[in-house]
Design a protein that fits this description.
By secondary structure, the protein is mainly α. The chain contains twelve helices and two strands; from the N terminus they run αααααββααααααα. It has a two-stranded antiparallel sheet. The longest helix is centred in the first third of the chain and has 32 residues.
Amino acid sequence: MTIAPILTGISQGFVYATICIFFIWLVKQVDDWRTKDFDDDRHIDDGNVAVGLRRAGLYLGIAIALSGALSGKSGGFFLDLIQLFVDGLIITGFLFSSRFINDFIMMGHLNNDVECIKEFTLPDGRKVTGNTALGMVEASMYIATGFILKGSLAGGGGTFFQSLVSAVLFFILGQIALLVFGFIYELITPFNVREEIKQNNLAAGISLGGVLISLGIILMGSLSGPFTGWANDLAGFGIYTVYGMVLLLILRSLIDRILLPTTNLATEIKEDRNVAALIVVESAIAAIAIIISYSM
């Protein structure tokens, strides 16, 4: 292997990383402007985990989606840069739309901005600022959306217009899938998930956020690949959406029995607020979702 291609690849990678940093900076500026009633940076400096989580999810979501824009056949370095920049602007718009959907539909009209700077008294008497459970769900919606966009942008075989329409269409369908799965999850859960999240139960936030991310990973796998026609792509997305939802619910039940043999998830979430147990369970589910996604 010669040195020249290696150096070229490194230099191009540095440029792509710089563009990613630019978009992270851009979404920060937009979010700062959007939440100008309070200073996000000050709250993060003061240790507000809720604000930190939602910002972390936003940054991860845009990076995950941009990685999809970098996939596929190259049209040349400069054309790739233009495409990446255009895709980055589209992704930015989608992520903030996802936040709106999370705020007014997924969480039942809770105002995330208000909740993330609200003062709570924990069961042990400690006072904290910011609803970390809600911050976790918002971060998870960003990350799940990033995976869906990664899949829709990673495909090839269509024109630029087809790629744009595909990204818009599957973003909308992906948000619908996440919302539907969120409501199904609440229906089969023996307690009020939204109420627990409203009461700043971080275990409940991790539980809901974890399954949303896992579904986003599976949907990414269903969208990746060349454009084969609208009918085929839409049918495939619908089939994998139903498949992913059913499989995740089954896996969640199995993992509940395997990893928590002396208790159950409902108890760990509502009564014990066991964050450690939920991190383990949701990480295991996400791990399996990754394998499923890349086996499609």
